[in-house]
Amino acid sequence: MRFCLPYSGRCREQPPTAAPALAAQGVVVRYPGGARAALDGLDWVVPPGARVALVGPNGAGKSTLLKAIAGLLPIAAGSLRVFGAPVGAFRHRVAYLAQRGELDWNFPISVRRLVLTGRYPHLGWLRWPTRADWRLADEALARLHLLDLAERQIGELSGGQQQRALLARALAQEADLLLLDEPLNAVDAATREVVSAVLRDLQRQGKTVIVATHDLDRLQADFDDALFLMDGQVVARGVGAVGERVHRAWLDNHRAAVAV
Amino acid sequence: MNILDWFLAPFQYNFMRTAALAGVLVSLTCASLGAYVVLRRMAFIGDALAHTVLPGLVIAYLNRWNMTIGAVLAGIATALGIGWLSRRREVREDTAIGILFTGMFALGILLMSSVRSFRDFTHMLFGYIVGVTDAQLRLFALIALVVLVVLMLLHKELELTSFDPTHAEVIGLRPDRLRDVLLVLMALAVVGAIQAVGVVLTSALLIVPAAAAAMLTRRLAPMMVFASVIAVLATLVGLLASYHLDVSSGATIVLTCIVCFLAAWGLRTLREQLSRTRRASRA
Question: Mind telling me which Gene3D superfamilies this protein's record contains (chain A) (predicted)?
Fold first, then answer.
């Protein structure tokens, strides 16, 4: 059995069981000092290989949920299991694409090396990337049409290219669960197309993808399932017309509330 | 006097050879770490570390302990204190550091003023690189070795946590712990720099060569190499200039670094100008 040198001592080889990619039960997440819970009693099961959307207005808890799954936020109550194990057990299998603002794009590093950092959970302490790691990084760059820009400093890329570079890193990581926080927010049409195609490929390979999004129009085309969040609670599920109608209703309510 | 003599004659003295060697070790240490100090915007912390080492130096001096060891201990204590303070959120980080650093510095001055002889303390404040002893030299060599080896072994982790702490955390790294490592390395580097250029100018050795290197490259590893080369050259030239002109060595070394920075800045501006005209002529 291949042993994965851990960064935190908790990254182990994958278990044989076909556990759900994500199983949330009564999950509560609070921000320190926050009056109400950012996520309040969330129940959700995502089967492996699904492509699901998290929909809701700003502040609904979409990012909070993704961060909790990624292990960036502790849960205050309930249980959250990724591939059948507690959060943090399979760090190399989970990739998280934060919104672009969470990275220092002025840092002197090339696009290729940024993508290579996706290999780090497989390397661990004291091991240098091997030729195979560089090759995987290049393959990921090629899939996102970034190979020509590989030697650029990351800040020289456009917003859409930066988003693609982050997705390339997730591919290089060979993660089984991808968490994407508004990947198509304010990007060019070319990026939209490439990203959608890659997400379809990922599903074909049996990867699970959870995407936080505002975009209702592509819901039925791009996703198997959707979870509608509002004020930290689930208000509707499914890509069908029901969820959409509910969501549009809140958006209208929300707008009305803001207008008043 | 010919130019070769200008460079070589001073080194017939033992103290100059020791000083030059010490300068090389210290500038190598500071400059390679300096890349992180500049990129992670830790310049203020570097300055603070240098100042907080003062009471450690003075207490060691008063008790006739090894002063360099006193400085190392005080530096590490401060480094960990800053790490701890910045993890708690009651006080903003720069405010917390400001309180810690002025407080420790004032304590150092207070202790200093309780002793009659001020001469040794002037050396602490403004540096006395020609006074480096063989024991200190060995310690500086050890510090340089430790800092460079740790920077090399943890390169990918330090690099990653510097520009993308979120991804680092998702894959199981602890960005705050790696920051503590950097702070301890900075504390070690600062101890040597104090001997070379003094408490007041120490942060210059951390910041200026790295800032100059940042003008010349857009990659981290070359930036560290360029910064080291610039720092070593500036230290040697500064040391020689101070010998010939009979002025403060610390100040001369720092000013030589600044000249290098200005030159690098000019070079970059020139290069940008050139590529712009080339692009314009192509269009």
Answer: P-loop containing nucleotide triphosphate hydrolases
Output the domain CATH number for residue B81.
Answer: 1.10.3470.10
Q: Which domain does A95 fall in, by range?
A: 22-259
A-B CB pairs within 8 A amount to 74
**Among B155, B60, B173, B40, which Cα is nearest to B112's?**
B60
Q: How many domains does chain A have?
A: 1
Q: Is residue A45 part of a domain?
A: yes
Low-confidence ranges of chain A (pLDDT < 70): 1-6, 8-17, 241-260
Angle at B53 between CA B51 and CA B56, to 5 degrees: 140
CB contact under 8 Å between A71 and B169, yes or no, is: yes
**pLDDT, position B123:** 80
Segment B67-94, tens digit of pLDDT: 778 888 888 888 888 778 777 777 777 8
pLDDT at B234: 95
Length of chain B counted residue by residue: 283
Enumerate the residues of chain A whose CB falls inside 8 A of the CB of residue B220.
Answer: 107-109
Under an 8 A CB cutoff, do A121 and B171 touch? yes
**In a domain? residue A147:** yes
Whether the complex's predicted ipTM surpasses the cut of 0.95 = no
Per the DSSP assignment, residues forming a β-bridge with A179 are: A96, A210
**Distance (Å, rounded) from C-alpha A201 to C-alpha B28?**
49
Low-confidence ranges of chain B (pLDDT < 50): none
Q: How far is A8 from chain B (nearest CA, A)?
A: 5
Tokens found for residue B267: 């070079």
Is the CB of residue B224 less than 8 Å from the CB of residue B12? no
Minimal CA separation from A18 to chain B, in Å: 23
Q: Which one-letter DSSP state was computed for residue A130?
A: -
- Residue A16 belongs to some domain of the structure: no
Minimal C-alpha gap between B148 and chain A (Å): 14
CA-based nearest residue to B171, from A173, A106, A142: A173
In a domain, A239, yes or no: yes
Q: CB-based contacts of A14: which residues, under 8 Å, 6+ apart? A: A83, A90, A93, A176
Q: Is the dihedral of CA B188, B189, B190, B194 positive or negative?
A: positive
Residues of chain B contacting A92 with CB distance shorter than 8 Å: 171
State the burial class of residue B70 (Cβ atoms within 10 Å of its Cβ: 0-12, 13-18, 19+): buried
Best A12, A72, A117, A171 member to test B by mutation, with max B CBs in 10 Å, is: A117
Q: What pLDDT score does A146 carry?
A: 95
- Identify whether the C-beta of residue A239 lies closer than 8 Å to the C-beta of residue A225: yes
Cα A91 to Cα A175, B118, B218: the distances in Å are: 9, 57, 30
Displacement of CA A121 from its chain's centroid (Å): 16
Cβ separation of B169 and A91 shorter than 8 Å? no
Nearest residue of B to residue A128, measured between CA atoms: B156
Cβ–Cβ < 8 Å for A157, A177? no
CATH at A102: 3.40.50.300
Overall number of domains in chain B: 1
Range of B92's domain? 3-282
